[in-house]
Design brief:
- The complex is a heterodimer.
- Chain A has 2 helices and 3 strands.
- Chain A is α+β, with helices and mostly antiparallel strands.
- Chain A has one domain: Phosphoribosylformylglycinamidine synthase subunit PurS (Mth169, Chain: A, 2-Layer Sandwich).
- Chain A has a 3-stranded antiparallel beta sheet, covered by helices on one side.
- The longest helix of chain A has 16 residues.
- The relative contact order of chain A is 0.35.
- By secondary structure, chain B is of the alpha/beta class.
- Chain B has one domain: 3-Layer(aba) Sandwich (Rossmann fold).
- Chain B is built from 5 helices and 11 strands; from the N terminus they run βαββαβαββββαβββα.
- Chain B has a 9-stranded mixed beta sheet, with helices on both faces.
- In chain B, β1, α1 and β2 form a beta-alpha-beta unit.
- The chains are: A alpha+beta, B alpha/beta.
- Chains A and B meet through α1 of A and loops of B.
Chain lengths: 79, 232
Protein backbone atom coordinates (compact mmCIF):
# COMPACT_ATOMS: atom_id res chain seq x y z
CA UNK A 1 0.00 0.00 0.00
CA UNK A 2 0.97 3.60 -0.30
CA UNK A 3 0.29 6.21 2.31
CA UNK A 4 0.36 9.94 1.83
CA UNK A 5 0.93 11.90 5.03
CA UNK A 6 0.01 15.58 5.30
CA UNK A 7 1.64 17.56 8.08
CA UNK A 8 0.30 21.05 8.70
CA UNK A 9 0.77 23.67 11.39
CA UNK A 10 -2.03 23.93 13.92
CA UNK A 11 -4.21 27.01 13.90
CA UNK A 12 -2.69 29.80 15.92
CA UNK A 13 0.90 28.67 15.41
CA UNK A 14 2.81 31.48 13.73
CA UNK A 15 4.10 30.45 10.30
CA UNK A 16 6.82 32.90 9.20
CA UNK A 17 7.56 30.82 6.10
CA UNK A 18 3.91 31.03 5.05
CA UNK A 19 4.05 34.79 5.57
CA UNK A 20 7.17 35.05 3.40
CA UNK A 21 5.41 33.08 0.65
CA UNK A 22 2.38 35.40 0.92
CA UNK A 23 4.62 38.46 0.50
CA UNK A 24 6.35 36.91 -2.51
CA UNK A 25 3.00 36.10 -4.13
CA UNK A 26 2.00 39.74 -3.67
CA UNK A 27 5.25 40.85 -5.29
CA UNK A 28 4.44 38.65 -8.29
CA UNK A 29 1.12 40.41 -8.67
CA UNK A 30 -1.17 37.77 -7.17
CA UNK A 31 -3.55 40.08 -5.38
CA UNK A 32 -6.05 38.91 -2.82
CA UNK A 33 -4.03 36.21 -1.07
CA UNK A 34 -5.04 36.86 2.52
CA UNK A 35 -3.10 34.08 4.15
CA UNK A 36 -0.63 31.28 3.40
CA UNK A 37 0.09 28.28 5.59
CA UNK A 38 2.73 25.84 4.43
CA UNK A 39 3.21 22.23 5.38
CA UNK A 40 4.71 18.94 4.26
CA UNK A 41 3.62 15.95 2.22
CA UNK A 42 5.38 12.67 2.95
CA UNK A 43 4.75 9.64 0.70
CA UNK A 44 5.30 6.21 2.21
CA UNK A 45 5.55 2.95 0.32
CA UNK A 46 4.49 0.19 2.67
CA UNK A 47 4.82 -3.59 2.49
CA UNK A 48 1.50 -3.86 4.32
CA UNK A 49 -1.44 -4.89 2.08
CA UNK A 50 -4.29 -4.22 4.51
CA UNK A 51 -5.54 -0.62 4.29
CA UNK A 52 -6.61 -0.33 7.92
CA UNK A 53 -3.32 -1.68 9.21
CA UNK A 54 -1.36 0.55 6.79
CA UNK A 55 -3.24 3.60 8.02
CA UNK A 56 -2.68 2.65 11.65
CA UNK A 57 1.04 2.17 11.01
CA UNK A 58 1.33 5.52 9.23
CA UNK A 59 -0.45 7.26 12.08
CA UNK A 60 1.93 5.71 14.59
CA UNK A 61 4.82 6.98 12.45
CA UNK A 62 3.29 10.46 12.59
CA UNK A 63 3.00 10.33 16.37
CA UNK A 64 6.56 9.10 16.84
CA UNK A 65 8.47 11.02 14.18
CA UNK A 66 6.77 12.57 11.17
CA UNK A 67 4.82 15.28 13.03
CA UNK A 68 5.52 17.31 16.12
CA UNK A 69 2.05 17.05 17.60
CA UNK A 70 2.61 20.03 19.88
CA UNK A 71 2.45 22.38 16.89
CA UNK A 72 1.45 20.21 13.94
CA UNK A 73 -1.63 18.29 12.78
CA UNK A 74 -1.37 15.31 10.48
CA UNK A 75 -3.70 13.36 8.26
CA UNK A 76 -3.14 10.12 6.36
CA UNK A 77 -4.52 8.83 3.06
CA UNK A 78 -3.86 5.21 2.07
CA UNK A 79 -4.28 3.94 -1.45
CA UNK B 1 34.38 15.40 35.84
CA UNK B 2 34.04 12.83 33.09
CA UNK B 3 32.19 14.23 30.11
CA UNK B 4 31.20 13.10 26.65
CA UNK B 5 30.15 14.95 23.51
CA UNK B 6 27.71 13.21 21.17
CA UNK B 7 28.63 13.57 17.50
CA UNK B 8 25.92 13.43 14.83
CA UNK B 9 26.44 13.75 11.08
CA UNK B 10 26.28 17.51 10.62
CA UNK B 11 27.37 18.47 14.14
CA UNK B 12 29.86 21.32 13.80
CA UNK B 13 30.35 22.61 17.34
CA UNK B 14 31.33 19.24 18.80
CA UNK B 15 35.05 19.98 18.92
CA UNK B 16 34.56 23.46 20.39
CA UNK B 17 32.42 21.84 23.08
CA UNK B 18 35.07 19.19 23.73
CA UNK B 19 37.80 21.84 24.02
CA UNK B 20 35.74 23.89 26.49
CA UNK B 21 34.92 20.80 28.58
CA UNK B 22 38.48 19.46 28.50
CA UNK B 23 39.98 22.81 29.51
CA UNK B 24 37.55 23.45 32.33
CA UNK B 25 37.47 19.93 33.75
CA UNK B 26 41.11 19.06 33.13
CA UNK B 27 39.95 15.74 31.74
CA UNK B 28 39.59 14.89 28.09
CA UNK B 29 36.00 14.90 26.91
CA UNK B 30 35.12 11.71 25.05
CA UNK B 31 33.58 11.89 21.60
CA UNK B 32 30.68 9.45 21.17
CA UNK B 33 29.31 8.59 17.71
CA UNK B 34 25.54 8.73 17.27
CA UNK B 35 25.33 5.10 16.15
CA UNK B 36 26.78 3.81 19.41
CA UNK B 37 24.19 2.14 21.60
CA UNK B 38 25.73 3.01 24.96
CA UNK B 39 27.62 5.79 26.72
CA UNK B 40 31.11 5.34 28.24
CA UNK B 41 31.07 4.05 31.83
CA UNK B 42 31.22 6.44 34.75
CA UNK B 43 30.09 9.56 32.89
CA UNK B 44 29.09 12.64 34.87
CA UNK B 45 27.87 14.73 32.00
CA UNK B 46 26.78 14.49 28.35
CA UNK B 47 26.81 17.39 25.90
CA UNK B 48 24.77 17.58 22.71
CA UNK B 49 26.60 20.05 20.47
CA UNK B 50 25.46 22.66 18.00
CA UNK B 51 25.36 22.17 14.27
CA UNK B 52 22.96 20.88 11.68
CA UNK B 53 22.47 17.23 12.56
CA UNK B 54 21.16 15.24 9.61
CA UNK B 55 20.94 18.46 7.59
CA UNK B 56 18.01 19.71 9.69
CA UNK B 57 15.84 17.29 7.65
CA UNK B 58 12.18 16.91 8.66
CA UNK B 59 12.52 19.23 11.69
CA UNK B 60 15.70 20.51 13.36
CA UNK B 61 16.92 17.78 15.73
CA UNK B 62 14.12 15.35 14.85
CA UNK B 63 16.26 12.66 13.23
CA UNK B 64 19.10 13.01 15.74
CA UNK B 65 16.64 12.58 18.62
CA UNK B 66 15.86 9.08 17.25
CA UNK B 67 19.53 8.07 16.78
CA UNK B 68 20.62 4.90 18.64
CA UNK B 69 22.75 6.77 21.21
CA UNK B 70 19.83 8.95 22.26
CA UNK B 71 18.08 6.09 24.03
CA UNK B 72 21.16 5.85 26.26
CA UNK B 73 21.23 9.64 26.73
CA UNK B 74 17.55 9.71 27.74
CA UNK B 75 18.16 6.85 30.22
CA UNK B 76 21.19 8.72 31.55
CA UNK B 77 19.07 11.85 32.06
CA UNK B 78 16.30 9.85 33.75
CA UNK B 79 18.90 8.47 36.17
CA UNK B 80 19.79 12.04 37.10
CA UNK B 81 22.76 12.51 34.78
CA UNK B 82 23.74 16.00 33.68
CA UNK B 83 22.86 16.79 30.06
CA UNK B 84 23.65 20.04 28.24
CA UNK B 85 22.20 20.76 24.81
CA UNK B 86 23.43 23.81 22.95
CA UNK B 87 21.71 25.20 19.86
CA UNK B 88 21.04 22.11 17.71
CA UNK B 89 21.59 20.14 20.91
CA UNK B 90 18.71 22.10 22.49
CA UNK B 91 16.56 21.23 19.47
CA UNK B 92 17.49 17.55 19.90
CA UNK B 93 16.60 17.63 23.63
CA UNK B 94 13.20 19.10 22.79
CA UNK B 95 12.60 16.44 20.14
CA UNK B 96 13.42 13.69 22.67
CA UNK B 97 10.90 15.18 25.10
CA UNK B 98 13.54 15.71 27.81
CA UNK B 99 12.69 19.42 27.65
CA UNK B 100 9.27 20.94 26.95
CA UNK B 101 8.20 23.41 24.29
CA UNK B 102 9.13 23.78 20.62
CA UNK B 103 11.86 25.63 18.73
CA UNK B 104 10.51 27.16 15.53
CA UNK B 105 12.09 29.15 12.69
CA UNK B 106 13.21 32.61 13.78
CA UNK B 107 10.35 35.03 13.32
CA UNK B 108 12.48 37.12 10.94
CA UNK B 109 13.35 33.95 8.95
CA UNK B 110 16.95 35.13 9.12
CA UNK B 111 19.87 33.14 10.42
CA UNK B 112 21.22 35.26 13.30
CA UNK B 113 24.91 35.08 14.19
CA UNK B 114 26.04 37.62 16.80
CA UNK B 115 26.92 38.17 20.43
CA UNK B 116 23.87 38.78 22.62
CA UNK B 117 23.28 39.85 26.19
CA UNK B 118 21.68 37.24 28.38
CA UNK B 119 20.32 37.50 31.86
CA UNK B 120 21.10 34.58 34.14
CA UNK B 121 17.59 33.98 35.48
CA UNK B 122 18.54 31.41 38.09
CA UNK B 123 21.76 30.36 39.76
CA UNK B 124 19.95 27.42 41.33
CA UNK B 125 21.20 24.83 38.84
CA UNK B 126 24.36 22.80 38.24
CA UNK B 127 24.89 24.83 35.05
CA UNK B 128 24.57 28.36 36.40
CA UNK B 129 25.73 28.37 40.05
CA UNK B 130 29.12 29.95 39.21
CA UNK B 131 27.48 33.05 37.72
CA UNK B 132 26.77 34.27 41.24
CA UNK B 133 26.05 37.98 41.02
CA UNK B 134 26.95 38.17 37.32
CA UNK B 135 23.39 38.66 36.18
CA UNK B 136 24.10 39.95 32.67
CA UNK B 137 26.51 38.03 30.44
CA UNK B 138 27.51 38.02 26.79
CA UNK B 139 27.30 34.80 24.79
CA UNK B 140 27.11 34.32 21.01
CA UNK B 141 24.13 32.92 19.16
CA UNK B 142 24.12 31.38 15.66
CA UNK B 143 20.86 29.82 14.57
CA UNK B 144 17.94 29.95 12.16
CA UNK B 145 15.44 27.98 14.25
CA UNK B 146 15.58 29.34 17.78
CA UNK B 147 12.15 30.80 18.49
CA UNK B 148 11.09 29.12 21.72
CA UNK B 149 7.35 28.49 21.66
CA UNK B 150 5.32 27.37 24.65
CA UNK B 151 1.66 27.57 25.56
CA UNK B 152 0.61 29.82 28.48
CA UNK B 153 0.36 26.85 30.87
CA UNK B 154 3.91 25.75 30.14
CA UNK B 155 5.24 29.31 30.42
CA UNK B 156 3.57 29.69 33.80
CA UNK B 157 5.00 26.37 34.93
CA UNK B 158 8.52 27.27 33.81
CA UNK B 159 8.31 30.53 35.76
CA UNK B 160 6.75 29.01 38.87
CA UNK B 161 9.36 26.27 38.96
CA UNK B 162 12.24 28.69 38.28
CA UNK B 163 13.21 26.71 35.18
CA UNK B 164 14.05 29.58 32.84
CA UNK B 165 17.86 29.59 32.87
CA UNK B 166 18.59 32.46 30.46
CA UNK B 167 16.68 35.23 28.72
CA UNK B 168 17.68 37.59 25.92
CA UNK B 169 18.06 41.09 27.36
CA UNK B 170 19.47 44.49 26.43
CA UNK B 171 22.68 45.89 27.93
CA UNK B 172 20.74 47.08 30.99
CA UNK B 173 19.31 43.63 31.57
CA UNK B 174 15.78 44.35 30.35
CA UNK B 175 14.02 41.62 28.32
CA UNK B 176 12.78 44.07 25.69
CA UNK B 177 11.48 43.09 22.24
CA UNK B 178 14.52 44.62 20.51
CA UNK B 179 16.78 42.28 22.46
CA UNK B 180 14.83 39.23 21.31
CA UNK B 181 16.77 37.91 18.29
CA UNK B 182 14.34 35.21 17.18
CA UNK B 183 10.86 35.83 18.56
CA UNK B 184 11.13 33.49 21.56
CA UNK B 185 8.26 33.56 24.05
CA UNK B 186 9.20 35.80 26.99
CA UNK B 187 12.71 36.20 25.48
CA UNK B 188 13.55 32.69 26.69
CA UNK B 189 17.04 31.54 25.66
CA UNK B 190 17.46 28.45 27.84
CA UNK B 191 15.30 26.14 29.97
CA UNK B 192 15.91 23.51 32.65
CA UNK B 193 14.25 20.14 33.21
CA UNK B 194 12.12 19.58 36.30
CA UNK B 195 15.06 17.96 38.12
CA UNK B 196 17.25 20.91 36.96
CA UNK B 197 19.90 18.54 35.58
CA UNK B 198 19.10 18.94 31.88
CA UNK B 199 19.71 22.35 30.28
CA UNK B 200 18.89 23.35 26.73
CA UNK B 201 19.99 26.74 25.40
CA UNK B 202 20.31 28.38 21.99
CA UNK B 203 23.39 30.54 22.83
CA UNK B 204 26.84 28.96 22.58
CA UNK B 205 28.78 29.11 25.89
CA UNK B 206 31.57 26.99 24.38
CA UNK B 207 32.32 29.77 21.88
CA UNK B 208 33.16 32.29 24.58
CA UNK B 209 35.12 30.23 27.06
CA UNK B 210 38.66 31.35 26.21
CA UNK B 211 40.07 34.88 26.77
CA UNK B 212 41.75 34.72 23.37
CA UNK B 213 38.34 34.49 21.75
CA UNK B 214 37.17 37.72 23.32
CA UNK B 215 35.50 36.67 26.55
CA UNK B 216 34.97 34.01 29.16
CA UNK B 217 31.32 34.41 30.14
CA UNK B 218 30.62 30.96 28.69
CA UNK B 219 33.35 29.32 30.80
CA UNK B 220 31.34 30.02 33.96
CA UNK B 221 28.76 27.49 32.80
CA UNK B 222 31.38 24.75 32.60
CA UNK B 223 32.89 25.87 35.92
CA UNK B 224 29.43 25.57 37.46
CA UNK B 225 29.30 21.94 36.32
CA UNK B 226 32.69 21.19 37.88
CA UNK B 227 31.63 22.83 41.15
CA UNK B 228 28.34 20.93 41.19
CA UNK B 229 30.12 17.61 40.83
CA UNK B 230 32.74 18.44 43.47
CA UNK B 231 30.10 19.19 46.05
CA UNK B 232 27.84 16.28 45.04
Amino acid sequence: MKARVFVTLKNGVLDPQGEAIRHALGTLGFAGVEGVRQGKVIDLELVETDAARAEAAAKEMCEKLLANTIIENYSVEVF
Amino acid sequence: MKSAVIVFPGSNCDRDMAVALTRTTGRKAEMVWHKDASLPDGLDMVALPGGFSFGDYLRCGAIAARAPIMRAVVDFAHRGGLVLGVCNGFQVLIETGLLPGVLMPNQTLKFVCKDVHLSVETTDSPFTSAYGNRRIVTIPIAHGDGAYVADPDLLARLKDQDRIAFRYVDARGEPVADANPNGSADNIAGVLSTNRRVLGMMPHPERLADPQLGGTDGALLFESLCAALETA
